[in-house]
Amino acid sequence: MTLPQSEETAVTAAVAAHGRAGLLRRLLRSPVAVTCLVLLALISLASLFAPLLTSQDPAHTSLTESLAPMSGKHPLGGDGVGRDVLARLLYGGRTSLLGALLAVAVALVIGVPAGLVAGYYRKWFDAVSSWLANLLMAVPAIIVLLVVMSSVGQNTYIAMAVFGVLMSPGVFRLIRASVISVREELYVDAARVSGLADPRIIRRHILPVVQAPTIIQAAQMLGLGIVIQSGLEFLGLGSATQASWGSMLNDAFANIYNKPELMVWPGAALAVTVAAFGLLGNALRDALDGTATRGRKPRSGTPRKPVVVKHSVPPEATDALLALEGLTVSYPTAEGEKTVVDGVSLTVRRGEVLGLVGESGSGKSQTAFAVLGLLPPEASVSTRQLVFDGTELGNLGRAEMNRYRGRRIAYVPQEPMSNLDPSFRIGAQLVEPVRRHLKLSAAEAKAKTLALLERVGIADPERVFDAYPHQISGGMAQRVLIAGAVSCEPDLLIADEPTTALDVTVQAEVLDLIRSLQRERNMGVILVTHDFGVVADICDRVTVMQTGTVVESAPVRELFAGPRHPYTRMLLASTLEDAEPRSPLSRIVPASVAGATKVAGVTDTAVPTNSAHQEGPA
Ligand SMILES: Nc1ncnc2c1ncn2[C@@H]1O[C@H](COP(=O)(O)OP(=O)(O)OP(=O)(O)O)[C@@H](O)[C@H]1O
Description:
Largest sheet: 6 strands, mixed
Low-confidence stretches: 1-20, 290-318, 585-618
Keywords: ATP-binding, Cell membrane, Membrane, Nucleotide-binding, Transmembrane, Transmembrane helix, Transport
Protein name: Dipeptide/oligopeptide/nickel ABC transporter permease/ATP-binding protein
Structural class: alpha/beta
CATH topology of the domain at 31-295: MetI-like fold
Pfam family, one: OppC_N
CATH class of the domain at 31-295: Mainly Alpha
Mean pLDDT: 79
Radius of gyration: 33 Å
Bound molecules: adenosine-5'-triphosphate
Organism: Streptomyces hokutonensis
Domain ABC transporter: 322-572
């Protein structure tokens, strides 16, 4: 069954998945787009094959044929100095189109990579490039072009290359904004967690999203490039020997009283070409509407990005698979530094399931993400030690940490649907980390993935392998993510409220699955949850967190038998199944309120008495 939360993603995914495949089909269904494409194709072909369409030299002047009327020799007549208008129109298209293409190419070559890097990595590159973009945008383009044209000997192409540089901040801003919006998507986090390197994440998950706005922007810039170039040539700044629509307008303007129809041909060519590019851009936008770019749902929850964790104390000898000591995480706020995790310590042994329990906001996810090295850059993080299987993770660089994430430390997220990229088939998303980490061939990775899908209880692995995320239910998506998490045989699995988004029947199955996989592979597991029922079901030990600190840590049986900390007792007491039957309500409580009070159901009557387990560091 698909969950309500998943349905929204499913719709998005459906559109996204079909968006790219059907783009051309949808574009060809639009009469405006087809007309524009046909017109642009005709203009381009006419310019390209100009030598075949006319035998006249567009630069040949003949004073005897000045303003010659239409004739067999000059089908569109002659201009002010006797040049053939048709030849100039055909050859002029080359100059105008090539000049605009050059400007757009330069703008894209500068703007796209800069926008990608700035949006993805942010930090100093973002600050510097945004500052440069603002500076370039403040420069009056036409003045710059006039100076360039007059100083480079009226070379149109150099001027258009400079115009491309001046247009690049627009591209940069667009791409940067698109990347920033998509890099916060959970499935991009999921790709990071699975250990994929940044270039691969950018290629697979970011580029598909920015390509739509880039295409639309390029179409509109082409029209603008033609207008600017023609404007410069109309002012007489173009090459004297090169035919162009702008220079034709210049000549026509000089003869406007003698032969006004000279304006018609270059004017019509310009108007049709610019309008066709503009309308094609709009049609592309409509065709892409609802696909990857526009259909993506803003992510909810905390942004999670890599951070360098500082460590000062060398790792102690321990049998723990993971030993975290003294983790502190804080964020800058308007009121000063806000500490959200304060001195948290925990250990996980091989084959052990540690429940990390606490109310919402107690710092469970922040702790889990600190272990994964995926806290946001603004987080300031310190630990005394963060040792995984004898290696201090805090000393690892980004690339080294990528080798641990996904391969040896895996992650199962809270919202299964949001962690799958809606534009790719499930198989493709599962196979990639397997190939990368285990160095398997495509066929081997596929076979392994299919076996895993079967192992996690998916009845028809082939169908799910070929399905898009929107075609499966929320429970199945969580099984898929669990399969992905264990695919590289990790030693430690971090599951962040893996059943929260699932309905009750599926929750139990997913927990059983995690437990059986954990036993089968002897994995250490950190299970982040706020639900003591889940803890009772599958955990061996439990660490209780309150407002960023560990208040109690104990084997599960001991904790249930005798919670020591009042906060733990309060949490346990608020679990309805553990509460004692309520006594009859007081007579002064109206019947209508009684039902509501019962549902609220927090009581301290079910607090068991003491035991001797340890209380964690506060
Ligand atoms: N980027 C951030 N900037 C400032 N505060 C943050 C940021 N990310 C998280 N926090 C704060 O850190 C605290 C702990 O958040 P965390 O997500 O770890 O809680 P949690 O126990 O996992 O809760 P939940 O069960 O709701 O996910 C919260 O108060 C949260 O507001």
